[in-house]
Each structure stands twice: as structure tokens, then as C-alpha cells.
Amino acid sequence: MSDLKPSDAKQLRDVLAWAAAESVPLEIVAGGTKSGLGRPQRPARKLDVSGLSGGIEYEPEELVLTCGAATPMRDILLLLEQRAQMLAFEPPDFGALYGLAPGGGTIGGSLAANLAGPRRIKMGSARDHFLGFSGVSGRGEEFKAGGRVVKNVTGYDLPKLVAGSMGTLAVVDRVTVKVMPAASKTRTVLVFGLAPAKAVTAMADALNSPWEVSGAAYLPAIAAKRSGVDHVAGAGTSVTAIRVEGTAVSVAARCEALRGSLGALGPVEELHSMRSVLLWREVRDVATLLPAADTALWRVSVAPTQGPTVAAVVPDADWFLDWGGGLVWLSVPDMGDASATAIRASFGEGHATLMRASAGTRTRLSVFEPPAVAVAALNRGVKAQFDPRGILNPGRMYEGI
What we know:
Largest sheet: 5 strands, antiparallel
Oligomer: single chain
Distance between the termini: 25 Å
């Protein structure tokens, strides 16, 4: 049976109205780079929304961009680069993580998964830059939410609800996002040889300093060795990385201050230009630093001080820390419960997401952090309002949602 492939908003509405009337479950795909994220699905039909791309309306002076939700991220980033602007939430490219070619993701996919990279500690998540959208609910009804300005507060803030919903509430056809000026210079201060807990303390000090740090990551020696950056791969020990962005003069002065304060902890080095950019791309996209495709890969968000504890809970696991220690990327054997019980018992406040595993493992386990009873009931109520027949990515996040 062929895929359903609307080419505009009207066709999308017609397809969803038909699917709702006939109770036909749909798997929604565009670039396909995140098909391995979430519980496996067996829908009756596949809804290919890759035709809902382009139509870019870009206002650099207003720091606003509107486009089709299936517009490739590479096209958007190239356009923004030409005007020295960026998506401040630093959306990761997980193509290689799932065995696909890099660069195939879409802006809508990044927002639907609420993905953000190393700069999240300074600039927030994808939903914080999601201004508005138009789309079609599981009822087959068109609707719009948000607007083209940051301070639009009319009605409910549906962009924040849709961000992270993994296409289970509505199919979005156009999105509006806030963009930001890009830094003219990027440098990274490296500290070598720190133990995990000491590194987290160093990163916290840097993040709490007046030097406006925009990235803080810790690579154990084995992860550092896989980097394409010679100063990192050749270190032969752990690497703590602190990123600073801005104008040339400001960046140089702030890095000098950081080197002075961090130098007492261990040997320090500084990455400039493309070496710095490459390292943070590796941290953002993960696959280079944790390349074993046959493992289960966890993304655990916790208080930074808990990062080393979570990383150590599975003996001989492969891992690294981002967000100053608050994000743990943890690669473990894909067998049994893929260490889900141990990992989720190792922290208090936080959540663990199974980002990659076999279909069987993702069927058996809760891919996303199991919600509290009250939150689960709220989730079901929201789902019922947007998609009462349960036709949109059924079961992608949780059983029945």
C-alpha cells in the first residue's frame, strides 16, 4: 500500500479528515532521521509529509523565520549562515546516530522532538524558540497557534505543548522560529586529566562565572580519543571542554580569564576556529564519540552533580557528559532491560530517554521516562482533545499515546 503524501495544507487536512473518519492509524515521517526514536509502530498507513517544505519567509532584521515544517535543516542553517544568524538552541543532527546520512533532518522534526544541543544551558531548548505554527489535529481540523513575535501571549501557548510531542497531537505544516545573531568567534578552553566529579565542579564554576560560557562538556579518555580534533584525541586522558562565543576581543579576554582560573586544576589548552567548531559538533551529534551502533544509547537529564553517579551506574559503560554534567550520554549493552532499572534508580529528579535500541528493546521498555500517575492522566486527556481516535503516531511515546 502506497504512502500518503500531501503536498500542501489542504491535502493534509483532507488526508487527516479521512483517517479520523475511518480510524486509520498513521505513522508520520518527513526526513526519517528520527524513526528510531520512540516505541516501534505498526500503523495501517505511513503519512509522508516531506512535501510540506520550503515557502521560507525570513526577516533577518526581526530575527524571525517561517517555513514549511519539512524544510531540511541544512537549508535553514545555510540560509541563516549567510546572514550571520543561527538557531540558538543548536539542533543536533542524529542521522549518523541511526545509521543514516547526516543532514537529512527537518526543522519540524527537531521541534517535534524538542531537541537541543550544548548551547541549551545558556539559550534554552527548542520549545523556547518556537513562536508559532499551523497544522491539522487528529480530528482533521486545521488550526494555528502562536505568532511571529516573541511576546505573542494570546490564548494557550500551544507551540510549547506541541514541541516534544513527537507528532502525537497534530501534524504541523508550517512553523515560525526565533533566530539569533551568530557569534563571530568561538574558542574552547580544554582542561586535561580531571576526574568526573572534579570536572563537574570545574564546569559549574565556569558556568557561574561572569565569562558567559556557552558550552561545558566532559569526555572520558576513551571518548576523547575518538574525536577528530587532534588536541583532544591525542590527549591520552580525559578532556573537560569550556566554550566561549562572541566578538574576537571579548572571546580572547574571557578565555584568558578562564585559563587563569582553571589552570590550577590541570594542564590547559585552547582550541580556536574550526577545531572548536568541530569538537562541539561532535558533542552535539554524539555518534562520533559513542559510535557503537549495536548498543542501547541513553540520554539522561539530571542535576549536574548527579551526572558522574549516573555515568558510573553501569560497569564498563561508554559515556560522556554535556550541559555541565547535567546531560549524560550512556552507551550500554542492548540486552535484558538495557540497564533501564539501574539507570532510572540512580537519580532523583530527572529523566532518562532510550534514544537508540533494537525494536524489541524499545517495545519492552518505556523509551521515555514513565510519567507520574497524575501526569499520565493529563497526557491522556490532552491526547483525547487533539486526537480522539488515536490516529497520530499511536504508541510512539507511551502505550496509547
